[in-house]
Amino acid sequence: MTTNTLSVLVSASSNMEGPLSKWTNMVHGWQYRWFKIENDTLLYYTSREKMLKGQQRGQIRLSGAVVGIDGENNSLFTITVEGKTFHMQGRDLRERNQWVRILENSIRASSGYAKNGSIGTTPAQHFKQKTEEASEFLKTLVDKVKELEQLKNGERVADEKKTIDSLIAASNNLTNNVKHAIIYLQMAQARLDPNMKTEKLMFTHPDLDEKPSSRVGTVSDSTQTSSHPSSNTEKPISGIQHLDHLKPHRAESYASSDEEEFYDADEELIDLDKFENEKSGPESGDSERCTDAGIMSSDEDGYDFGDSHEDFDEIYNNAEEHDIGNVQQEHGSVLMHLLSQVSVGMDLTKVTLPTFILERRSLLEMYADFFAHPDLFIATNGIDTPEKRMISVVRYYLNAFYAARKSGVAKKPYNAILGETFRCRYTVPNSSLSGKKTESGPWPGSDEKQLTFIAEQVSHHPPISAFYAEMPSEGISFNAHIYTKSSFLGLSIGVASIGEGVLTLHNYGDEQYTITFPSGYGRSIMSTPWFEFGGKVKVECEKTGYYADIEFLTKPFFGGKPHRIQGTICREGVKKPILTVRGEWNGTMYAKPPNGDEYVFVDVKSKPEVKKECIPVMQQGKRESRRLWRHVTAALLRNRIQTATTSKRFIEQRQRQEAKERLENGEKWTPLLFETTDKEGEWMYKQKLGVRNTL
């Protein structure tokens, strides 16, 4: 692309223009097109010359559209509107991002939800502007209702009067909705400036002091205008004299350079839990809604979650998850609120996602499911050649993901809180226990022939989980740390798993296999979400020189199957791979040697997962996952979303309070089970095999 083209590309956002490749179904290929943004429309032409002549090829309406990026391809992006998806391709990452940013701004402007904090506008100014706009709209509504009432008082036939009555009733309902909107805006403005007097925020209108009885179809509620005649004092349009009791309690802001910092409420960019609860009413069987102020001043143990009769162990044994359903149809307001607040590529660390997307387990327990086939985990022990051991490790690795993401539902586990732990153990099928018990390790007192697992959330910012598994009798262990970084991709949410795991064969001179992890993607968040893995990973043994390069392939834009993988197993110094692998990570994978036939390498559905053993929920420590999240888990199973949200907030608020107290006392959080090493970013289990003195 020439310098002149680039200068056109970065022109004013309101009239941006430049070349892109557009996928056309007619020829099933990429075609050069010249694009130009005008107001709320993206126009395109076959060339710039055609644009100058006004010979338009087509156009894409931007109002209500959504821009999406692929996450695995740096130049592709999509525009989805009215059920149609248009595929575009820039020259490189920079060019794609330029178009995405400008298109997002145009879409927000044309759709009426310009992002807060636009250039030149502070959040306080933005809220004031919106409140003034709502006030003007309310005045217009009141005037229109008056006109309707005057029409009714004239000489009208019965049918006309009935129609006018219906219009007045509908207008009054709309008026009440606008009143509520103004209240929310005033609450938001109060949150931005906690020192201001809420009464001063209220815009007034002298005509809102009429008696409710004079309005046909007026709904009586707490926001209804008082029937007392007005004096010369103007009345708040909300119909409420004071909003101080609605004003959110502002948690004190604090900051720390420590990695364990827990964001307080004011640092969150957007809280969709709160938005969802404010939009919905009480649910059948739900506990009385608890405000943030109530949570801050209450003890979770003294709160009635309505689950005292539940068998929490049985609830956790029920691992079946259901689809979220069509998000746009069932949770459209939450979705639009999200789209109005985030940008493509934005880090979602500070975004509190709504409770209805949670699956009923902690992230730490999800990592435990990587070991749901303990027989494959230990199968490498006893193999005599380095080549076969590498193949065995890769087989275990590729088999592990299905158990962890078996449902395929695009829900996310609970975000583990700082200091949270999870432990469990597995018994190898068709094996006999030795009777020899461990004295330390993840679960002291377990048989040496059981696989034991322990995980701990060692950092909150950034969110890092560390976990460790071992089987002492086989001399095998696995230590890993993963930093999860989530990003908004428009039509998808991507979660990068940054970190690595190390599988150690202690009986082979501490032969180690370093393993990385793929990214996860929640796709189609505008409709019915689904999950897939994507990205390149590596399994490498430095001691033997063997390594594997594996790619989790995301579903192509145009046709093709999801969930595919492809890879090779190689040896340093040898040009040809010793094995090529292909297939689907949630189905069957095949392997082929250079001079042999292809065979089934892994069939993830050929045998069931081994059930994990855990200490009964109420016998666990208060920081252990299942006990910590039990109220959330029970409420989600019974579809009591507000109760689940309340319990979740108790957990999060306690974390904020603890972080604040540590800061005030000059204390630093120290993980209980894991510690850092000389290698940057690495966390190691303190009592791993080969280090501790006892079994």
TrEMBL record:
One Pfam family matching this protein: Oxysterol_BP
Protein family per UniProt: Belongs to the OSBP family.
PH domain boundaries: 13-108
Keyword Transport in annotation: yes
Molecular function GO terms recorded: lipid binding
Region (Disordered): 205-240, 273-295
Name of the featured protein: Oxysterol-binding protein
Organism phylogeny: Eukaryota, Metazoa, Ecdysozoa, Nematoda, Chromadorea
Keywords: Lipid transport, Lipid-binding, Transport
Compositional bias (Low complexity): 220-233
